[in-house]
Amino acid sequence: MDISISRSLFLCALPCFALACSDDAGGASDAADEVGTEAEAGESSSEGETGTTGSSEGEDGSEGEASTETGGGQDPPLDGDLVTYAGANAEFNEVLRLSDGTFLVSGAADDLDWLDAAVPRVELDGAGELYTAEDGRVGFILHLSANLGEVLRAAHFPGGTVTDIDRMRTTEVPGSITGDLYISGRRTTPSWQDDGYYIARLDGNFVDAAPTGALWARDIVAEPREAGGYEGQSAYEVLQPWDVGAEGEVVYGRGSEYDFGWAAIEKLDADGEPATVEHWPAHWGDGGEHYAEASTYPGQITHSAVVLKAGRLGSLRSKDAEGYAAITDDGNGGTRQGSWPDDYFFSGPCVPGGDCAGAPGYTGYSTSSKPTQRLGAIVIDRRDGSMFFGYSTQSVLPGGLPDFEPVAVAMSAEGELLWWNRLYRETDDNSTPDQYVDGLALDYANDRVVVLARAHGNNVINLWPGNDIASTPEASAFKNGFSGTSGNIHISWLGSFTLDAGQLAASTFVAEYADTTGGLGEPLSDPNLDGWPDPNGGWPNLTTTRCHDLEVGPEGQVAVACTGRRTITTAGAWQQMPKFEDGSSAWNRFLRVYPADYSTLIYSSLVVGSFDAEGVGGGNTRVEGIAFVGEGGGLVGVGAHEVDEQGVPKGELVPTTAVPSWGSEEVDGETALLVHYVVD
């Protein structure tokens, strides 16, 4: 029997399921090791059960009107949950809310024939500068009305020029009038040497005017890993780590992670040309490389970089003995050695024109034979141009076992190092879990940067616990730390740091229950948490929980789109996860909102195909982009319903509601997916 029906009907018609008549079924799947791609472990599992659905109250809808060429009249408010499919052989990748209240949704499809013929369309020019050989795929942006009920226009590149339109960024400080619009996406090329992604600046932002093309477009080289036999995609191509500042200058990552060749952060000016940054560690000119300030170079500097190849000149390590030996604040009440983050792996500084000390570092860590680093994200403060980025290094423990170490770094607009945070305490015991940075976002309301990180493995020395915050001794997060006995899993983590000094302000683990587990805590007393066992009580087993997007709201709320198994959902969620006693769970995507201190959940709902009490029908969606809807409003998420290797849609349908005229209740191959959840 399908249990993905309205919440009220579920409670009336199926009291046995709802009130605990069924034992747990199925088991959780462990995750695979990190190999430089974003493939999800366990998501193809058909075990699990999808949540029940329930309506939630809406908002006042006063989000502004969208300019439109396709019809008059004021849009009705966006005042309830909305879940819709769209397109045929299509996907949505990113959603962006504009200052007039309308939305942009980017993606890709085989064609746009699924749009109504009356929708205005513009074919964007300027993609001819890109090196790509994709056969027929169309990268597009849909401009949607403020209530998501109407497609106002569609802009797209010619078929076969780009694989998709993935990321979208604008130049304004959040809350201001929408600035210039920049995009990025994947390219498909005949040879791995040319592989990577593109970044482009469009000539319109859909508020002042619809774009007609790209003012400029640049290929970013991100070839597959040599260590992986040049197969697959570089994490730089998958993640596309870049951001744009208020003046239109783009900072981006390029290269291959955990490899032998090259990786770096570089910069383009507002015209798309290579730029210099005075205090970045490395510069290139007509006479070669330069490792002091750009202005001290005797010739002409062509561009600058932050080298992400551990140990090399121009990377993030000290250039003198004093900097290497410095004892500095670790950002959470302790100390560590080294002025720069990569000092951790070496026995001394790397002196330009002199010795460049080798491994190990002061706690015994060394770098591996694959020294290029994985850049997880970049974000720029559009008020002053400060840059924040997070990366991970493939390391070697003193006993010879492999490991991965994370760090978050802040630099001024001129490239001066402001602070860095290891995200855990550096000790001689080291931190054996593999740890990575997967995302960053700015909390403008509280002057913080939010870091989305991930740990693979179980060890007491892990990412900062939610109840060990030096600046707030009384803090306790929704999930303070690891629990249970499952070690071969990936679990996510959120941490907020002060912009000026990198001091930890709050943190929580995002780590959902395994399908079945003992050691559960007592039910939570908050009615919004719907009687779920306290994640900080007992010692329950967890399973892989990987997050794919991060967004901060206007009041500092933190939203994530993640993959989990027995995901905790809130009382007002559109699609809820049944409790342990009500049947098996399924791998699922979920949207969640935390308050700025991570002490509880504001909202949490599944986005997955309907699955039964045996757990069949789920594990078939992805949600890649999210956006808040104004102060105290809802959350929009976009993604796709996935297909198997034969192109057949997986599992069961996601329960839809309030489907707009441009949407559908059905799937047609891989099918784009959009949800709006009211966040109470």
TrEMBL record:
Species whose genome carries this gene: Plesiocystis pacifica SIR-1
Start and end residues of each stretch annotated as Disordered: 27-82
Compositional bias ranges of the Acidic residues kind: 31-41
Swiss-Prot/TrEMBL keywords: Signal
Biased composition (Low complexity): 42-56, 64-82
Signal peptide: 1-20
Highest rank taxon of the organism: Bacteria
Protein name: Lipoprotein
